[in-house]
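Bumping with the actual sequence this time:
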Amino acid sequence: MDILGLLSPELVLLATGLLVLILDLVFYREGGRQVWLPLVAVAGLIGALVATSLLWGTQESLLSGMLAVDSFALFFQVVAGLATLLIILASWDYFKGKTPFEGEFYGLLVLVTLAVTLAAASTDLIMVYLSMEFLSIGSYILVGYLRDDPKSSEGAIKYFLYGAIASGIMLYGMALVYGVTGTTNLAAIAETLASGQLTGDFLWLVIPALVMLLAGFGFKIALVPFHHWSPDAYEGAPTPVTAFLSVGPKAAGFAILVRVFLVAFPSFQVDWVAVLAGISMITMTLGNVVALKQKNIKRMLAYSSIAQAGYILIGFASVALDSPSVFNGVNGVLLYLLGYLFTNVGVFVAVIAFENSTGSNEISDYAGLVKRSPWLAGTLFVLLLSLTGIPPTAGFIGKFFVFAAAINVQFYVLALVGIVNSVVAAFYYLNVVRYMFFLPAEQESKVKVSPPLAVALGIATAVTLLIGLYPQPFIDFATHSVRLLSIL
């Protein structure tokens, strides 16, 4: 019973996903819509969030060390649950007329959310691999969900091919780690590597293993050079799926990256910190420079998401858990992810609203949006300011914490590259603002925002501003969630 209680959020998500799929199968009518199915998914997600809140403060290891129920895992359960709730609201009207199999989408989305929570809680390399594959397979299906859309199918195939290669490389890295240490448990790996029992020849195998693990984790985060799937998958996928890809798998990738590298390989920190700092700078720069030339807003946001991953990585590359400073790096990663959740999902909700009304995702078609829909233009303006990192928004707080962490450990070049890239990013974010507010519209027809989209957009914008105006509770939430590292 204790194990069932500790796994209650995951069990609720599993039951909800299966229930939605079964109800869709039982009540399916050709040409009809089960408009109440999203409500079942929403109820299950709220139940999972309630179960998560009841476990807050728990620090337990279960299933022979395969999973952990700690503040770090619970943080990502909250992030995944909130992101999926907003995306279900955004999907309410999106699939109308696009597919006769709308109900399956909500079941799959909940099950992929379950995969994110399992990935964040994994404390064994076998469980890491299984949860990553669970997440990947669900994501491939969601990207290609519109089977009659060639772009959706193309994006899914590219995502699958890159994912299969990255998965194989990651698994080979895990095999090397097991070969060196004789265990797949993260804490046991750290203990073996720190014991001094291994010879130099064996220890050298850890370095290529770390590179291979980083390839697998970097694929999910869309770090350069593991990012090539991202633009095509983002552009081709249904827009609600694109919104989920920008948050869900990215959060899972960072959760696994932080837990595996800090728990299993603290004795190799000098090596992987240097690699991560270099990848961070390249990722930020490439993402922002390529985004400058994009004409399609979904493709622009794909490269923006790559750049945002680079900013978040600054925090992890600047990790200093023994520092007396509040900027320990990891809490900056969590705080940035929390703000990025509401900001980026909010932007995609606005894109969905515009796409539903106009059928377009071209940036030039956003011209004169302030006259066609002041609410949509105003909220999108706030969210784009947050992505840029301008106060008083969540994006500013997140960037402040990761840049401060870099300065705290004297990574001045890394912080400078991040600041310069933020200035570069302002050009393409504010270019959308220029179209919305300063260029005349070619059409005068109103852009309608459905009630579910308006609610999701309002929540995302309000929380984005709340984090910027009153950040202390969110800072405390992120800082408390790092306390799993006390088990080291």
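The tokens above came from a reply further down the thread. The mean pLDDT is 87.
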